[in-house]
TrEMBL record:
This is TonB-dependent receptor. Belongs to the TonB-dependent receptor family. Keywords: Cell outer membrane, Membrane, Receptor, Signal, TonB box, Transmembrane, Transmembrane beta strand, Transport. It is found in: Cell outer membrane. It comes from the Bacteria. One of its GO terms (molecular function) is siderophore uptake transmembrane transporter activity. It is a multi-pass membrane protein. Residues 70-150 form the TonB-dependent receptor plug domain.
Length: 706
């Protein structure tokens, strides 16, 4: 696509936050199968490529970079933001979210530390350090691991090999100010590289206050995060040995949709391995990694008003994930057979305490452990000019849980549940099988494509072993109390997608229609048949905590269908119109009801003038009302809205750009359907109301690199 070519060619660019359709072949760390037909790529920073000296006009970014990278990913076709706070957002992709969307950072998968997913994967990808976000289009190939809905990989900036023998410096610096939340972000990269070695360090710092909206301020929405790390690579012939380490420190950060706020996330990432050719047309990819999350959340540090001493809570959570991956590919990039295996070992521990009473503690997730072993085979090639990617994988996942310990001040209700859980079988295992066929036929400017897939997802540890009734639900943040279900079964999705890509010199258009039939879809269902009648210990405990109708995770039957597209058009040389549109419908098949928390139809539309040094334009973000909501989950409808923003970029020099803009120009009051609901008393958002989008505000960003 023309837009992508411009982004790649820019010496220093912050390219438009609409998806581009390929990853530069010069990027050594591009994801497997990063093909225009197979992968959507949102380019945030287009680094200088070796040998490029021409400064080509590229569109500016339309928006201020949000701290939450999920808000950027949500601009992909089929995407929508699940807004749970400044640093806790998730991507909803074609109606599916949470653990159904595989999230990674720099190709590394890991378990979140928060029991309610306050740290979903993109929490660890500060937007000020983002290079690009790669999203497997429609469904993920089997080589990327098990995934029901799709896969997303956030790639941070890093040094690149050069073409010479002398070590040369590489640097990038970006800074931003945003008035809506009085926030700032600073981030950068400094490194050295030549044709065989590359070294680099990255760092970022972000801090923001409670954000404003048309009718006031959203209380308890401030945030603070620091990240730093180092990476290195050694090119051994056509392959590379690499290693990287990062430390992410989230300090007190508000989460208005949750009962507790973040006090800290201290998380260490390390991974290393080898990638590249070991013989002619034989490529080896080996990777080992570990992620350690240490987390504390409470209702005292930020929450206003703070909870009373009796209801004060401080919850400690740990999560450790060790991964190992290996694959061998025989053939070229466009014609190959790949076989591989991977393992993922996860240990989680959650302890709920009362900071005013040392005798009150409950091990809500005592030594939860997941062990997954998987293997896959994938072929890519063509038959009679028709391109194919065919793959299959099998995974065996084992779950286990320890015996919960409780303090002397814990009442009898939770004690009885803990004793029953200790006496029950606390082990389970599932075997899941995936199969994917993606095929397309290049016909010059037009490429029709078809995808057929069978995807499965094993239940999570929380969905299976969550013995204590709590509001932990992997980020649904809906105020409901949930409990696990030891007998829960894996989800099985049957997927079909048809679309075409039309690409010309000045015009691109990529529509898709899709259908997903999901057997055993996991969602909250009534705990028992006597809804509202408190006749069990689970319901008694839930009622004491304000929810007399608790839910358990159960299997239902569902279907999702819809359409999405993106396009770009340059009617004249200096003017570009581009956009993304998405629609998805989710329904229960076992009862007459709609699926819970499905994004409304939505549109992003941008128009920009592209000058040699000055570019400017406007963007429209709109969503239809969503009144097809889940009655069985008491979901409330939402209204339609349309928000306008302005943006501009000025090239001070070949290595320096200034971008600025105004968001929500007309100060529209709007509440995105998938935004969480406020739990903060000292706020201009009433308790239980959906969180609004930010009001009118200005932003400015400075970027430089060499």
């Amino acid at each position: 696509m023309f837009l992508n070519a411009l982004c790649r060619a820019s010496l220093l660019a912050s390219c438009a936050l609409f998806p581009t359709h390929s990853v530069s072949a010069e990027n050594e760390n591009a994801a497997d199968g990063a093909d225009p037909v197979l992968t959507d790529t949102i380019t945030v920073t287009a680094p200088r490529r070796n040998g490029e000296t021409e400064d080509v006009v590229a569109p500016p970014q339309q928006v201020a970079l949000p701290p939450d990278a999920a808000a950027i990913a949500a601009r992909t076709p089929g995407g929508f933001l699940v807004g749970n706070g400044a640093l806790s957002g998730q991507l909803s992709y074609r109606g599916l979210s949470g653990q159904r969307v595989l999230g990674r950072v720099n190709g590394q998968r890991f378990a979140t530390g928060g029991p309610n997913a306050m740290d979903p994967p993109l929490h660890y990808a500060p937007s000020i350090l983002l290079d690009r976000i790669e999203i497997a289009r429609g469904v993920a190939p089997v080589s990327q691991g098990p995934s029901l809905a799709g896969a997303i990989d956030a790639r941070l900036v890093e040094t690149q090999f050069t073409g010479g023998s002398a070590l040369a410096p590489q640097a990038r610096f970006a800074s931003q100010y945003r008035s809506a939340d009085d926030s700032y972000a600073l981030g950068g990269l400094i490194g050295l590289a030549n044709e065989r070695w590359r070294f680099g360090v990255i760092a970022s710092k972000e801090e923001g206050d409670d954000y404003s909206f048309a009718d006031g301020t959203v209380g308890g929405s401030s945030f603070e995060r620091t990240l730093y790390g180092a990476h290195a690579g050694f090119r051994a012939g056509p392959g590379e040995l690499f290693i990287e380490y990062r430390r992410s420190e989230t300090d007190p950060t508000g989460n208005p949709p949750f009962a507790l706020d973040i006090v800290f996330f201290d998380t260490d990432f390390v991974q290393g391995g080898f990638r590249g050719e070991i013989a002619e047309n034989v490529n080896l990819d080996l990777r080992l990694g570990h992620v350690a999350v240490r987390h504390l959340m409470d209702n005292q540090t930020i929450r206003q008003p703070a909870a009373s001493p009796m209801r004060a809570r401080a919850t400690f959570a740990d999560a450790d994930t060790t991964t190992a991956e290996g694959s061998v590919r025989f053939g070229t990039d466009r014609d190959y057979v790949q076989i591989g295996a991977d393992a993922e070992l996860t240990d989680k521990f959650v302890n709920i305490t009362n900071p005013t009473n040392s005798a009150f503690f409950i091990e809500a997730q005592p030594n939860f452990r997941s062990e997954r072993l998987g293997a896959f085979a994938q072929w890519r090639g063509d038959i009679g000019g028709v391109e194919f990617e065919l793959g299959g994988r099998i995974d065996r996942t084992g779950h286990s849980a320890g015996v919960p310990q409780l303090g002397n001040a814990v009442p009898m209700g939770p004690r009885a549940l803990a004793a029953a859980f200790a006496a029950a079988d606390r082990t389970a295992s599932d075997t899941t099988v995936d199969g994917v066929m993606r095929t397309w036929l290049p016909l010059g400017a037009v490429t029709p494509r078809v995808t057929l897939a069978r995807k499965e997802r094993a239940p999570s540890l929380l969905e299976r072993f969550g013995w204590l009734p709590t509001q932990a639900s992997y980020g649904l943040a809906d105020g409901n109390i949930y409990v696990g279900n030891p007998g829960i079964e894996p989800e099985t999705a049957w997927i079909a997608e048809v679309g075409l890509d039309l690409e010309t010199g000045a015009f691109s258009f990529r529509p898709s229609v899709f259908y997903r039939r999901v057997d055993g879809f996991i969602q909250g269902v009534p705990y028992d048949d006597s809804v509202g009648v408190i006749d069990s210990p689970v319901e008694m405990i839930a009622a004491m905590n304000g929810d007399p109708t608790p839910l358990t995770f159960g299997n239902v039957d569902a279907e999702l269908y819809g359409a999405d597209l993106d396009f770009s058009f340059r009617p004249v040389e200096r003017f570009e119109i581009s956009g993304v549109a998405s629609f998805v419908r989710g329904k229960r098949r076992d009862i007459d009801d709609d699926l819970y928390r499905i994004a409304p139809a939505n549109l992003l539309l941008s128009a920009a003038y592209l000058g040699d040094r000055l570019s400017f334009g406007a963007e429209l973000m709109a969503a239809a009302k969503q009144d097809r909501v889940s009655a069985s989950n008491d979901e409330q409808p939402s209204d339609s809205y349309a928000v306008v923003g302005l943006f501009a970029r000025y090239a001070v020099g070949p290595d320096l750009r200034i971008e600025a803009g105004v968001e929500n120009l007309f100060d529209e009051q709007y509440q995105p359907h998938l935004a969480g609901r406020s739990r903060v008393g000292a706020s201009d958002v009433p308790l239980g109301e959906r969180l609004p989008g930010p009001g009118r505000g200005a932003w400015v960003r400075l970027t430089t690199q060499f």
